[in-house]
Structures are given as structure tokens and as C-alpha cells.
Amino acid sequence: MQISLTNSAFKTPQIFPFCQPFISQKPSTHQLSLQQNLHVNALKGSSSYLSDISKAIDHEEQYLQAQQKVNRKGVNLEGITIEGVSVGGQETCIIVPQFKCAFDIGRCPKRAIQQDFVFITNAHLDHIGGLPLYVASRGLYNLKPPTVFVPSWIKEDVEQLIDIYRKLGQVELNVELVALDAGETYEMQNNLVVRPFRTQHVIPSQGYVIYSIRKKLKKEYTHLNENQVEKLKESGEEITDNILSPEVAFTGDTTSDFYHDPLNADALKAKVLITEATFLDDSSSIDHARQYGHTHIFEIMEKGNRISNKAVLLTHFSSRYNIEDIRQAASKLQSKLSAKVVPLTEGFKSKHS
Ligand SMILES: [Zn+2]
Questions:
Q1: Residue 121 Cα, ligand 1 centroid: separation in angstroms?
Q2: In this predicted model, which residue has the larger pLDDT, 20 or 243?
Q3: At residue 50, does pLDDT exceed 80?
Q4: Which residue from 14, 65, 275, 330 has the highest number of Cβ atoms inside 10 Å of its Cβ?
Q5: How far apart are CA 203 and CA 128, in angstroms?
Q6: Ligand 1 centroid to 339 CA: how many Å?
Q7: Number of helices followed by number of strands (H, E) in the chain
């Protein structure tokens, strides 16, 4: 289980304490004379000079790689890297680079601009506020117009919103808006499709499941040996069925009723479920969570037997919590679930910071 690295880990990488030489500083007179000597020596024996340079480059590359590792945000769950930020009421944008997509776009973090697809779960500003900036930034960087999926009931309003920004800024904003509702399917790329599912928030909302398309040998051919299958294939016979395999499900904001909807079965068996746990302790009741259209972590504890996912990424904690509160609550939930439980803590403070 890899857990999101916190801000405290972004300090100078400890494994490369010699990073200082790579920081550009004016050299002292002593250093200058050393460098001049090195240069003179290099002219005398260029092979040792080149090997010194090559060592320095190697060190710098190692340092940069280490720094990247330390700076890398997000988590890797079941082979899927997921990053982003989700703070209840402030901002949610969950990015899955390998699917080129982001779920919701509360404020448009820079990393979201590279993603070709955005899935909007509800029209609250902490989930949709960054959309105009996202579309504009794609244009600014000459990236192809994005495809943005919205529930059908907000499509017209979102179109008008983008129109207003076109008018205000006198700019072209190119975007393909796709209305997609629960039960419908859209092919994003050759091997990926998306389907929305129903969630329950205080305004209309929906989640999304992304499926990979896998080929499976048709039942009637499973008794054949390898050569026979190969011959059938060469004859032009269609020997496989397309199987949809749920990879990632994202609920957005929802009450725990979502766990009981039989139509949401795929979301609860995707490899990774990304869901919300806005409230984490006794300071807010389950009733309070329900009243505001959210889930209390205590409810997830009760519904553990409904979760068949391999991993659960918890998001959307209230900003009242710090990283330690979140980790403690997640570890309590972990003891109740067989799925791996990981909290997304980017955007939260540590009580030590
Ligand atoms: Zn929210």
C-alpha cells in the first residue's frame, strides 16, 4: 500500500544530502581557481575531465530522479496511479493520468490541464468551478479540445456558462460537452468506456465507472486446443466476446444510500472505488452527514460487506480535519474492510505543521 506523501516529505531529499552543489550559486574565488585548475588539468588529460563531467551528470540525474520521487503526489492502487485534491466544500479534482481523465474540476489544478476527459458529478462549485479555466487552459497550451461529461440535466446551463465566458473574455473556448446519464455508455478510447451511475446528494448527482474492454474466448470455443483456436481465427471467425471490466469508480458527493442501489453493483466491484467520507468522528452525526448529502465514515464501516473493490480511496474530508485525524479514521475503517483503504490527504495540514 502506498500512501500519499505529505508536504512534510517535500523537503530536501535525505538520500541525496549532496544536492547542494547543483544549486546555482556564485562561486567563491577559491572555487574559481579550483575550477580553472580543473579546466587546465582537463586540457592535459581530457579523459579524466570527461569522466568527472559524466559522474557529475550521473549524480545530477540521480538527484533529479530522487527529487521527482519525493515530490510525486498521489497514490498507486492496483496498478492505477491516482492523484489530485479533494477537500469538502473547497475543491475536488481527482486525476487518473493513465485514463487521461479527471473526475470533477473544482479549481483546475495544473495537472488537470493535460487530461483529455473530465467527468462532472454535480454542479456545486467545489466540483465544477474550475471548468471554464480548464477549457481555456487547454486552448492556451494548444491541446485538443477536451471532452467534458455532464449529467444531461445541467448540460444546457453549462453550455450557457461557457458562452458567457466566451463573451466576457472575447475568446474561443473549444470543448465537446457530452450529456451522459446513468445506464448510458460512451466509448472514450478503443479500450475504455465510461458509464455513469446514480448517487444521492442534495442536488442531482451521479458517479462514473470506467471500464476496460477485454477480449475473452467465446464459451463455445473454450474446449478447443491452441492450434484449433488459431485455425478458427485465421478463417476469419469471430472467436472472442468483449468483456467490460470495471477499473475505477468515482462517486463524487453522495449519501451512503449509494451502497444500497442494485444498479451500482459495478461501482462496488471496480478494482478501485474512489468515494467520499466527509465526516470522520463523533463531532458530526450520521444524521448530519445525511442531511447535507454526504457520507459519514461510520456508515462505510457498517457497509463493509457490500464493498467488493480491491482498494478504496477515501476523499472529500471536511477541512476541519488534519492529516493525523484522517489517517487515524482510515486505519479504523481498514480494520473493518478487506479492501485496501487509503485516504487522499493532499490539501490538508498536519497538526505538526
Ligand atoms: Zn463537495
A1: 10
A2: 243
A3: no
A4: 275
A5: 13
A6: 24
A7: 10, 14
